[in-house]
Amino acid sequence: MAPHRELDGSSAGGQFLRTALALSILENEPVRLENVRGDRSTPGLRHQHLAVLETMAGIADAAVSGAELGSETIAFEPGLETVAVDGPSSGTGGGLEGGSYAVDIGTAGSVTLLFNTLLPLATVLESPLSVTVSGGTDVAWSPPLDYLRYVTLPLVRRYGIAATCEVDRRGFYPDGGGAATLRLAPSRLERIDLVERGSIEGLRVYSTESASLADRDVATRQAEGALERLDREPALDVTERCEMTAASPSPGSALVLRVDHGTGIAGFAALGERGKPAERVGEDAADDANRFCRGSAPVDRHMADQLLSFLALAGGRVRIPAVTDHVETRCDLLEAFGVGVERERAGETAIVSVASPLAGDE
Description:
By secondary structure, this protein is of the alpha/beta class. It has helices at 14-27, 47-60, 111-118, 145-158, 218-229, 278-294, 301-306, 308-314, 325-336, and strands at 5-8, 31-34, 63-65, 74-77, 99-104, 129-135, 162-169, 178-185, 192-194, 200-210, 238-246, 253-261, 264-271, 316-320, 341-346, 349-354. Helix 2 packs parallel to helix 3.
């Protein structure tokens, strides 16, 4: 048995666990995590983290210890025979079997965070992978489903990730009950160079309400609140506006704004809350979009974090709005796996670069 790479999550949350599991599979290297979610008020595995661990173990035929609620120590050893790559920016043909999986988080735990964990695995798939997850599709502390569908996936597809997402039903807090399917195909990831932002090209608006809120026109009011709040300079022409009423076991709403520009896309989201006017939901998302448009980074703050695993695989450079705690934590974890990650201040932004990606070590 190969020795486990020792990792300490005492100053991190669930993101550390999810990224560590993905890197373990991508590198076909066993890991041992101590102090899982150590900086949270309730450390250890919760339902959504246990669901991620069990899903990754099933896909990678991994041997696992500590897979139980509340566990603060886990060991994870992928059962892959090889993880070969084809060139410095691709993992196609890497020994990870695809197949179909169904996952029930059992709570309103985030569906999108689990999907984000799976996306880099497309680079080591030998055959298509389909994962259907039941849980929360639009919940706090995670990207809403439309952010994943209309921001994350279109952007990573530009660099070679073959991924689609199908929605069966929405699940808002506290009951969850949503369901969606992520489909991945074997993919060749290209180098990511996303430093300069092109001119602003347009705005897309995706506003969703549960059926229980339809009589209050929540989806329309969210969209109108956002459009009223957006800065007039630069002008954001609305190229798509989608207002949807969705069946859900819980009342809730979500709004996602997508800004298209010459070199990429960025997204901004807000969720409805009890007692919060729908217009204010739209204004919150618009405030974030306004800050983005006044800056120079080509990606938003949340995408800055999400792109780092792909950067570690393919190499390249990305200008990000700021080095947040999430960005710093993920960079530290990548460095623990031997990835040289450089962070350089660039005015009000920062540039993150990887010269020697993981795949280049093969």
